[in-house]
Structures are given as C-alpha cells and as structure tokens.
Amino acid sequence: MVQKVNPMKEKHAQRNAVPQEEKAPPILAGRHAIIEAIKAGRGINRILLADNVRGGGVNELRDLAREHGIMVDTVGRSKLDALVPQDVRHQGAVAYVAPVAYVAVEEVIAGARARGEDPLLLLLDGIEDPQNLGALLRTADAAGVHGILLPRRHSVPLTETVARVSAGALEYVPVARIGNIAQTMRALKEQGFWIAGADMGGEEIYDRANLTGALVLVIGSEGRGMSRLTRDLCDFTVRLPMHGKINSLNASVAGAILMYEALRQRTAKTAVRHG
User: Using an 8 Å Cβ cutoff, are 184 and 178 in contact?
Assistant: First the structure.
C-alpha cells in the first residue's frame, strides 16, 4: 500500500533537516569542573590535557577518567586556548560533553528485567557515522530495544548530530559506553545472553534465527562489518537475503530489519504464552 505524503509534514521535515556538518560539541573547561562532572555522572566523551600541566588535581582527573573509561589525550596548550573563550580559564583541561549521560551496562539489563522483559541489546562494532548512529537509536526506540552498547574506541560518540538524527530517541534509549568489546561479550554470555551478529555470509537467514530471550544484536561498521574477533565471539551470525546487484545494506537499515524481526518474534512468543 502506498502512503500519501502530507505536504505540510514534508515542508516541516525539510526545514528541520539535519545539516551535513557536525556542530562543535559542547565543552567543559577546568580541572575541578570536569572532576565534579564525572563524579555527578555526566556524559564525557573525551578529555584534553595540556602537555605541561601538573599537580594533584591532574592526577585525580586522570584516575577518575581511567575508572570511568573516558579517553584522555595530551595536546599543546595553544589548542586548549583556541577551544575556549578568552575570558575562560581552562587550567590545562577541557572535556567534550555528551548531550546525555551514558549509563552502565548493568543498568540497562536491570531496567529490562524490572519490566519483566528479556533484555534486547544492540552492540555497535565500529559505527563511525553519526547519521547511522542517530538512525539506529530512532529505530531502537521504536522496536523496543532496551539499550545500545557503544565502544569507546573506533566509534562515534554521542554528539549533537546524533541527537538530532535520533529525533528525540536519545532521550529514551539508554546508551552504555564499553571498553573492550570481547570482554563485554564474554561477560554477557556468562549472564545468559545469546549473541547474534549481522554478517553478509551469516549462517542463518535472519527470519529463521531465534531472536528471542536475552539477546545481543551486533551490527558492524559501515564498510568493514564486524571485526574478526567480534564475529568469532558471536554464538551465531545472521544474513539478510540480497537479490539485487548490491551486496550489502547501510548499517542502520540492516540494524532496523534485525531489530524489528526480534520484536516480531518476541511479540509472537508473548501472544502464544498468553493465548
């Protein structure tokens, strides 16, 4: 069935289209301000420290960043001077702040269990395009995914562009930053999760695989797909049938198909249980 397009909605969508260029991320300046932000649970994507900065506050900041898995880079002081207004003293430390706070993986799982649902998580391996991440967040909210696992390295963090493309979904879908992907996958398996990876050469057609129960869906990068180690740690891999000349789909499109298939299977299982 072909849907009619509402001209007013179309104009509204064009007016609110996401610009191609990424806005400069919000920043926080000053060692003490950053330390308190981390303690308060604020989402910090990355910290920049001047290469000549020293002192107890710097050591505390480094320790806190390490404890919370926040990347710390050392740069020239001139770079920090260029990032903040002239009347702001950065004390040799600047942090890039996420639009929302990250959560712990345990919080995501506990939230699903509290609702009496089997946790459905989306693990993104190497997604670097903010448009794709935003689109995946939007679909995750619609398909009932309980949370997204986002590696700290080789993946786009939560940014203003991600927030805009998600169309508000970022406010409702918890995002957990993880360190080592392999360690996270092994830990989730120990908690009873099955892990299914999307792969062009997957063992099973996506709609024949069992996507119910406590499950992690893994979506690989836009160009390379999952890393070899990630693929090896999956319990099984699934593929989407491709009948055209193009042999792969955009990461957000593939993810959307799998998330909705998981929703379909879970809805059917619930209906049978209560039928």
Answer: yes
